[in-house]
Amino acid sequence: MTITIALSKGRIFEETVPLLAAAGIVPAEAPESSRKLIIGTNRPDVRLVIVRASDVPTYVQYGAADLGIAGRDVLIEHGGVGLYQPLDLNIAKCRMMVAVPEGFDYDDAVRHGARLKVATKYPQIAREHFAGKGVHVDIIKLYGSMELAPLVGLADAIVDLVSTGGTLKANKLVAVEHILDISSRLVVNQAALKLKYQAIQPVLDAFAGAVPA
Amino acid sequence: MRNWLLPEHIADILPATARQVESAKAAMLDLFRSAGYELVSPPLIEYADSLISEGDDALDLKTFKLVDQLSGRQLGLRADITPQVARIDAHLLSGRQGVTRLCYAGSVVHALPSGLMSSREPLQVGAELYGYAGIEADEEIIALMLEVLSQAGVAGLRLDLGHVGIFRALAAAAGLSHKATRELFLALQGKDVGTVNELAGRLAEPWRAAVLALPELYGPADVLARARAVLPPLPEIDAALDQLAALGDALKGQAEIGFDLAELRGDDYHTGLVYAAYAPGWSEALARGGRYDNVGERFGRARPATGFSLDLRDLIRILPERDSVRGIRVAAAQLPAAKAEIARLRAAGEVVLIDYLGESAEALYCDRELIPAASGWQVVPFN
Q: φ, ψ for residue B248 (rounded to 5)?
C-alpha cells in the first residue's frame, strides 16, 4: 500500500523535513535542487509529490495524493471540501492582516461606510472578514506583489500574509487589523484515511508526536 | 458559434458507457426486486418547498429552481430522490401500516457539483425501507448496498459505520445553540481539529473532552471500546455504540468494516446510523446512506426510515468495461429474403444489423455474418 504526500517547495518543505523524519521518512532528493516532481524516499511505500502550495488541497481532494501539507490560508480559500484536517502542524506560522498606506485613516474610512477597494490573493478570507465587520468592499484579486496596489492607487487596503512585517515597512504600509493566525495543517483524503488506515495512521501519529510547541 | 458545447460538469453518455450503465441499472433493479423493493419513479420537478425541507441549506443550494407558469409557485429540479420517496411513503402510500420497501433509479440535477469529478447530473439509484425502527432494517439495507456494489464488479469494499446520534446527544447535553451546533458539525465533518479546538473551548467538561475526542474516534473495531472509555455515559450514546457494535458483528464477512464516530457526512436529514462504502480507485464514497426517521412528518406521517443511494455514473467511471456481445452482419443485398431468419435470430437474443455500405467488422461491431447456404441460412465468422 503506497502512500503519496503532496508538499510545496520552500518554507513548508523545510519545516516538514523534521516531521517526516519522526515518521521514519527521508526524502531521496531536495526539491530545491531537483527538477523532479515525484520524489522517492527511503521507504519504498512512501513518495512525495511537489506541487504549488495552493494546489495541495486539490491534489489531495482528487486522491492524487493521500496526504498533504497546506497553510490554513490555502485551505480556507479552497473550502476544504472532501478533506480531513486532523492536525495543526504549527509550522510555517504567520498572520493574515489588513494593511493600508501610512497616513490612511482606516478606522475613519470604515466608520463612514465607505466602499473600500481591497487587493488580495485571498478573496474568500477578505470577503468573509469585511462582511463580518459590516463593511462593503470591492475585491481585486492579484497573484503577487500586493504591497504595490495601494501605492499606485489600485486599492485602499490589502489583505495579505505577514510574517516579519519587513515588506510592509519597506513599502510604507502599516498593518491595521489582524484577521487570522496561519499555520500549516496536515490534510488527508477522506477515502484514503478509510482505505489505507493501516498505512496512514502511523504517519499521523508520528507527526502528532513531533509537532513543535 | 460553439453550440455543441455542454455546460460544465454535464456530459453525454456515449454508446459503450450507455450499454454498461443500462445493464448495471437493470441488474440493480432486479436485485432490489428480488428482495421485495418496489420500483417508484417520482417526477423530475416538484414544488421547491416539497423537495427541500426547511433549513436544509445544502440541498437548497444544490437545487435548480424555476417558476411554474401554471401556479406561479417556485419549482425545483430534484437534486435528491430520497425526500421524494419519503413523500410517497408518507402520503400516497399512507394506507400501508406495515413495512414499505421502495427503490428508484433516475437522474437528479445539481446546481453545484458535489465534488471535483462529480457530474451535475448524477444517476441516483437507491433503496429505502420505511416503517421499522429495528436495527435489522439497517442491516438489511447495508447488506443490499454491499451486494449491489459487488454485483456491479467493485472489489475491495470497505464499509464505514457512524452514528449522528452521538454528536447530537453531546450537542444537546452541552446546551449548544443551533448555530454553534451547525459550526461544530461542519468542523467535525472535516475532522478539522484546529477549528474543533477553537469551538469546543467554550464548552464545559465533560462535553469539551468528549467533543475533542470525536475526531480521533475512527478506525477498526477497537474504536468502540475507546469511545466507551472517553465519551460520557449518556443513554443515547450508549445506545448508539450498542447499535454500531451489533451491526459490526452482523455484517462481518461481507466487507472490511471500520467505524468513524465523527462521520457526519450523511445528509442534513440523517438522524441515527450513517453508513458509506468505499473502494480502492474512488476518491469519495461510492454509496452512502443512513437512518432518517420522521422525515415524512412534514408530509403528514412520521415513520422510521433507512436507506442508501449511489451515483451510477460515478460508479461506472472506474469499473472496467465488460465485454459486450458483438453482432451478426447481414449484407443489404440479402434482403428481403433473409427477413424471417433475421427475425428468428433477433428473437433468440442476437444483435443482427443490416450492412448498407459494406463496412469493416470493427466499424459494425460484428464478429459473425448471415449468409445464404444450400439448406437455408448460415451464421459464419466475419472479420
A: -60, -40
What's the grid cell of residue B246? Answer: 451489533
Strand (E) or helix (H) holding B139:
helix B135-152
Whether A82 and B215 lie within 8 Å, measured CB to CB: no
Flag whether the ipTM exceeds 0.85: no
Task: Look at the alpha carbons of A91, A96, A102, A108 in this order and tell me if their dihedral is positive or negative.
Answer: negative
Q: How many angstroms away from the CA of A113 is the closest CA of chain B?
A: 28
Q: What phi and psi, each to the nearest 5 degrees, are found at residue A197? A: -50, -45
Assigned C-alpha cell, A86: 486532523
Cα B89 to Cα B305: distance, rounded to the nearest angstrom: 10
Question: How would you write A57-80 as a 3-class SS string?
Answer: HHHHHHCCCCEEEEEHHHHHHHCC
Q: Identify the three-state secondary structure at position B281.
A: coil
Q: What is the largest CA-CA distance in chain B?
A: 93
Nearest to A194 among B195, B197, B258 (CB): B258
Here the cell at position A14 is 523545510
Task: Say whether residue A106 is in contact with chain B using an 8 A CB cutoff.
Answer: no
Q: Are B104 and B40 in contact (CB under 8 A)?
A: yes
What is the distance between the alpha carbons of residues A126 and A68, in angstroms, rounded to a whole number?
24
The residue to which cell 495552493 is assigned: A54
Q: Collect all residues of chain B within an 8 Å Cβ-Cβ radius of residue A193.
A: 218
* Residue A108 to residue B323: CA distance in whole angstroms: 72
* H or E element that contains A90: none
- In this structure, are residues B192 and A80 in contact, taking their beta carbons and an 8 Å threshold? yes
Instruction: Write the secondary structure of B324-360 as one string of H (helix), E (strand) and C (coil).
Output: CCCEEEEEHHHCCCCHHHHHHHHHCCCCEEEECCCCC
Angle at alpha carbon of residue B296, lines to B294 and B300, rounded to 5°: 115
What is the separation, in whole angstroms, between the first and last Cα of chain A? 32
Distance CA(B38)–CA(B250), nearest Å, equals 25
Distance CA B334, CA B275 (A): 58
Of B156, B190, B279, the CB nearest to A85: B190
Residue B373, burial from CB neighbour count under 10 angstroms (0-12, 13-18, 19+): exposed
User: So what's the pLDDT on residue B323?
Assistant: 65
Query: pLDDT digit string (tens) for B228-259?
Result: 999 999 999 999 999 999 999 999 888 999 99
Contacts 24+ apart (CB under 8 A), A44-47: A45/A1, A45/A2, A45/A3, A45/A199, A46/A2, A46/A3, A46/A4, A46/A5, A46/A203, A47/A2, A47/A3, A47/A4, A47/A5
What is the per-residue pLDDT across B153-190, written as a single tens digit (0 to 9) for each? Answer: 999 999 999 999 999 999 999 988 888 888 898 899 89
